[in-house]
Structure formats: structure tokens, C-alpha cells
Amino acid sequence: MLIxxxxxVATHLALRHLRFGREIYAIGSNPPxxxxxxxxxxxxxxxxFALSGGCAGLAGxxxxxxxxYVNPGITGVGFELTVIxxxxxxxxxxxxxxxxxxxxxxxxxxxxxxRWRCRSSACPASWQNAIYGAIILLALVIDRSVREGGIGHxxxxxxx
Amino acid sequence: MTVLPMDQRPAFSWxxxxxxxxxxxxxxxxxxxIVGTQLSPFFADLGxxxxxxxxxxxxxxxxxxxxMIVISGEIDCRSGR
Lengths: 160, 81
Hints:
The complex is a heterodimer of chains A (about 160) and B (about 80). By secondary structure, chain A is mainly alpha-helical. Helices cover about 75% and strands about 0% of the residues of chain A. In chain A, α5 packs across α6 and α5 crosses α7. The longest helix of chain A has 27 residues. With about 80 residues, chain B is an all-alpha fold. Chain B has a domain of about 55 residues.
């Protein structure tokens, strides 16, 4: 719990108060503009992926420490869908450029609560994956509609 | 993202604060907690909450750092256009 809290605080501070975090937001909202502004897009993106890989390794280490074994064929299967759904539930724009760590933390809590609820009510695993997929699709539609000027714009285009 | 100086920043508004996505997620969490508590009294038990939280720590760590990747727009969700 303390490790997760430390990662959350570090991520929040990096995104909000460091130049690196501002560069991530700039790259996400408009990559060509960020490049023209002088931001080195490739090294920043590489650093983000390296950080993500490092933290995934830390998560794997914690998992192995808890359960005592890791099966490469089973462990973490379908994990990415759940994690992306949690991030999207937290209000992070799936097209980039917007979002916060607080939202992701709340999204994780929501996702974990609903997962425990599904398990206790014997909801099949395939249905859980379908729900997470539907959440991601819904987030994509909402994000696109907001970027293009609201739901009304999509409706008008559908009629045309 | 442009950072405005303190004197040019807009005044705090409850309407804008309530429309933030985090608030919606928080409300969703509260609703889920209320529904869960109605379905089972153990759902609101502090011991259960702490124990279930420890099982989602790995999930949380990966999600927190994946936030950076999603913000930087590296998840490609293009659908043909």
C-alpha cells in the first residue's frame, strides 16, 4: 500500500510540477506543435515507456513476493484491458493531453470495487472483460465527440 | 499546455469544479460503495476494504504509470481514419 502511495505521489509531482510532466501533456495534446516548440518528443516518449516498464517490473516483483510464483502463461493475462479501463474511468483522455493521477487513483478504486462485486456475485470473467471493453469504447466515442464539438455535432453528421 | 500567471487565472467556480472528470469518478465510487453495502454488509467493513486493497496494489502501480503513457497519446485507438 505504501509503495503504491509513493508511486502515486511521485507520478503526481512529476506530471504537475516538473518540466518533464508538462512536456508529456504537450506531446499528448499536439505532437507536431510540441516538436516545433522545441520539445524532444522521442527521448521524452522513450523515458515514459522506460518508467512504465520499470513500474510494471516493480508490480511483478510485488506479485511474486505475495504469491510466491509467477506463471508467464497465466499471470497478467487480460491485465492491460483492465488497467486501461481504470485509467479511462478516471477521466484521462484516451487520445492524450488531459488527465490526472487523482482521477486514475479513483478509477482504480472504482474498478477494484466493481471487480470484487462481480466476483462475489459470480459474474463470469468473460462478462467482466466485455464490460471493460465497452467502457473503453464508450470513452473513445465520448472523447471524440467532445473534441469535435459535442454529441450534437456527431448527430448532425450522422443525418448528413 | 499554457500555464497562466496567478493574477490571470479564472476565479474558482463550483460549476467548473463539479464538471471535472475526477468528480464524476468519485460520485461513481460513492454510488458503487452504497450499492455494494446494500447488497452485503461486509462490503463496508474496514478489514475487507484494506484486504481487498492489498490485492489491487500491483494493478494500481501499473495504472498510475500507464496514465503517463495515455496522456502522452501513445495508445493508438485510431479506427480507420
